[in-house]
């Protein structure tokens, strides 16, 4: 069974750093893209970017380029989303998402979500 | 940047009736169109991909159709568990593989 299990909710202050995780299991981690989707409170879905663990090719939506870092550790089948300087506007639910190599962008499995709250 | 527009914003339908959701793309998406369901407090779930292919485990009452820039999701006979928000998404143009803004399906 394919599973994407994300780390727990976080409460941070503006300016702090954060790294959340997503562990994949039940499939070949290296042969699917894995990425992150943001959902701000009461709003819709936005792809942030994704990584192909097999060769670490990483792509970002322009709105998120330079704002976050997406990475993956193949040895523990885990993907990460990292911020170095959180803002209040980063408050959102973040979903880990798997995308097939031949239908890149389509999300066939989702993590359960990690709620990030940034408040002073 | 491609824009995905869903209509209506809210759809009110009675259990057992048919629900039809519309999604329009500002550019041709060449068959790279998916639909997702999101219930309150849950992650989205893939329903349909490549316009009309049901994802694993999705009941046959869900169907997708359309081409070019106009797409439709139909639920043939609504069950109580179907009341949720539905999103369409194109995955032909990166960035950003745009989502529609969602249609909320509520009980009439």
3D structure, described in words:
The complex is a heterodimer of chains A (120) and B (108). By secondary structure, chain A is an all-beta fold. Chain A has no helices and eleven strands. Chain A has strands at 3-6, 10-12, 18-25, 32-39, 45-52, 57-60, 69-73, 78-83, 92-100, 109-110, 114-118. In chain A, the strands form two sheets. In chain A, strands 2, 4, 5, 6, 9, 10 and 11 form a seven-stranded mixed β-sheet that branches. Chain A starts with a strand and ends with a strand. Chain B has 108 residues and is mainly β. Chain B starts with a strand and ends with a strand. Chain B is built from no helices and ten strands. Helix content of chain B is 0%, strand content 47%. In chain B, the strands form two sheets. A six-stranded mixed β-sheet of chain B has the order 2-10-9-4-5-6, with no helix packed on it. In chain B, strands 1-3-8-7 form a four-stranded antiparallel β-sheet, with no helix packed on it. In chain B, strand 4 and strand 5 (45-49) form a beta hairpin. Chain A binds chain B through residues 44-47, 59-63, 95, 103-113, and chain B through 32, 34, 36, 43-46, 49-50, 55, 87, 89-92, 94-97, 99-102.
Largest interface: A-B, 21 and 23 residues
**Could you state the order of secondary-structure elements of chain A as H and E?**
EEEEEEEEEEE
The portion of residues forming beta strands of chain A comes to: over 45%
Helix content bin of chain B: under 10%
Strand content of chain B: over 45%
Strand tally of chain A: 11
Structural class of chain B: mainly beta
What is the gyration radius of chain A calculated from CA atoms? Answer: 13 Å
Quaternary structure: heterodimer
Termini separation of chain A comes to 40 Å
Biggest sheet of chain B: strands side by side, in what order?
2-10-9-4-5-6
Summed up, the helix count of chain A is 0
Give Rg of chain B in angstroms. Answer: 13 Å
Overall morphology of chain B: globular
Low-confidence stretches of chain A: none
Spans where pLDDT lies below 50 across 5 or more residues of chain B? none
Task: Report the total helices of chain B.
Answer: 0
Average pLDDT, all residues of chain A: 97
Report the major sheet of chain B. Answer: 6 strands, mixed
